[in-house]
């Protein structure tokens, strides 16, 4: 018998080949670089209660079993992909439940956005219609609403996390040690997020003959839910005919077209993913300060999405079908390393937490260099 399965007696655990294949992949496999690192785990365990998490962590501590936290597998950066063959994938999608207050949402990790009501979340991932709250907190970053309300780490108020060193409750700025850490710092079992009241979003497209005018207009829309600057090549890839540069603005009760929420994500807030899947082109991403937007050229398909993180406005900019000439902070879409995505001040909190509570690197091993 599989040694790991023997250790996990009493849990809902599977180790058949079909299950191992399915649960060792997430949407990160669209990157050949990430997919090449994928290993089949020894087993997949399905947890539904906090006491099961506690029991599992006892096994992890005693037998030094590496584990990989998983929600619905919608992460595009390999967060749920094991890098070690003796890993156990921990599926938390069945650990559901939430409560709401006027200004907050408290939830178990397996709860899905639609179960709570998408209008209540300050920032939504492009995979909101199938992702879990725990998965987004553990591995997400930006999304619809991040320009107006900030990134996911700006909106998480509390996190409960189980580490090899025990249960920890994090509050305020402490949560940045776990949010976007991709499960490398423990199993997230409860999150508390800030809540908003979002009305219907309308979309308008404004065309400009020059990049300078497009950027000037875009940066003035910082109260919108999302703002994207796209060139003619990107608009054409999305099925729209336009010259020059186009600024797409989505704002609550603003002027413009009514758009179904899922189409809002697919065609606007998540456009790069749609184009990459359709055209199978190369892609990369740079986080650029706003002044660098004036230096964009027309060689690539470009989708510059304005966002905020820790109160600073910037452009999360996608370059498709070419290599960008600009320099910026590379948000590496082809790396499994958290170090290749997190800002320095947040990364330092993750590393400090890792060194203190998981020095053996048992939690999603190999993805946080510390």
Question: For the largest beta sheet, what order do the strands appear in spatially?
Answer: 13-10-12-11-15-16-14-17
What average pLDDT do the residues reach?
94
Enumerate the spans where pLDDT stays under 50 for 5 or more consecutive residues: none
Number of strands: 17
Biggest sheet record: 8 strands, antiparallel
How would the global form be characterised?
globular
How many distinct folded domains? 3
Structural class: alpha+beta
Count of discrete alpha- or pi-helical segments spanning 4 or more residues: 12
Strand portion, in percent? 25-35%
**H/E element string?**
HEHHEHEEEEHHHEEEEHEHEEHHEEEEH
- How much is the radius of gyration in Å? 21 Å
Task: Determine the N-to-C terminus distance.
Answer: 35 Å
**Approximately how much helix is present in the residues?**
10-25%
Describe this structure in a few short sentences.
The chain has 370 residues and is an alpha+beta fold. The chain has helices at residues 3-7, 17-23, 32-35, 50-63, 113-116, 133-139, 146-149, 211-219, 232-237, 261-269, 271-279, 344-357; strands spanning 12-14, 43-46, 67-70, 88-91, 98-101, 104-107, 156-163, 166-171, 187-194, 201-208, 226-231, 245-252, 257-258, 283-288, 301-309, 312-320, 329-330. It has 3 domains: 3-91, Uridine Diphospho-n-acetylenolpyruvylglucosamine Reductase, domain 2, CATH 3.30.43; 98-197, Uridine Diphospho-n-acetylenolpyruvylglucosamine Reductase, domain 3, CATH 3.30.465.10; 201-330, no CATH class.
């Amino acid at each position: 018998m599989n040694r790991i399965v023997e250790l996990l007696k009493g849990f809902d655990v599977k180790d058949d080949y079909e299950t191992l294949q399915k649960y060792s992949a997430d949407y990160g496999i669209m990157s050949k670089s990430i997919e090449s690192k994928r290993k089949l785990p020894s087993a997949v365990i399905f947890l539904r209660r906090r006491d099961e998490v506690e029991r599992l962590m006892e096994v992890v501590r005693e037998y030094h079993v590496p584990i990989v936290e998983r929600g619905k597998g919608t992460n595009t950066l390999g967060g749920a992909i094991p890098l070690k063959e003796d890993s156990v994938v921990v599926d938390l999608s069945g650990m559901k439940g939430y409560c709401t207050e006027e200004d907050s949402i408290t939830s178990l990790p397996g709860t899905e956005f639609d179960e709570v009501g998408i209008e209540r979340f300050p920032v939504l991932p492009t995979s909101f219609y199938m992702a879990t709250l725990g998965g987004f907190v553990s591995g997400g970053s930006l999304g619809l609403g991040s320009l107006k309300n900030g990134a996911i780490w700006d909106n998480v108020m509390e996190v409960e996390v189980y580490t090899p060193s025990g249960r920890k409750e994090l509050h305020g700025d402490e949560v940045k040690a776990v949010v976007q850490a991709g499960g490398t710092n423990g199993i997230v079992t409860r999150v508390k997020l800030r809540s908003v009241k979002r009305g219907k979003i309308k979309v308008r497209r404004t065309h400009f003959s020059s990049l300078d005018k497009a950027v000037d207009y875009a940066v003035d829309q910082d109260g919108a839910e999302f703002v994207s600057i796209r060139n003619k090549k990107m608009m054409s890839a999305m099925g729209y005919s336009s010259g020059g540069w186009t600024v797409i603005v989505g704002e609550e009760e603003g002027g413009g077209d009514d758009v179904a929420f899922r189409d809002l994500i697919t065609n606007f807030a998540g456009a790069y993913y749609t184009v990459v899947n359709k055209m199978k082109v190369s892609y990369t991403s740079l986080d650029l300060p706003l002044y660098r937007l004036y230096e964009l050229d027309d060689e690539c398909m470009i989708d510059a999405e304005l966002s905020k993180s820790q109160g600073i406005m910037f452009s999360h900019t996608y370059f498709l079908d070419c290599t960008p000439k600009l320099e910026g902070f590379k948000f590496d879409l082809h790396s499994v390393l958290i170090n290749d995505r997190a800002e320095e001040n947040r990364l330092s909190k993750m590393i400090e937490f890792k060194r203190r509570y998981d020095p053996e690197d048992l939690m999603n091993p190999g993805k946080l260099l510390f």
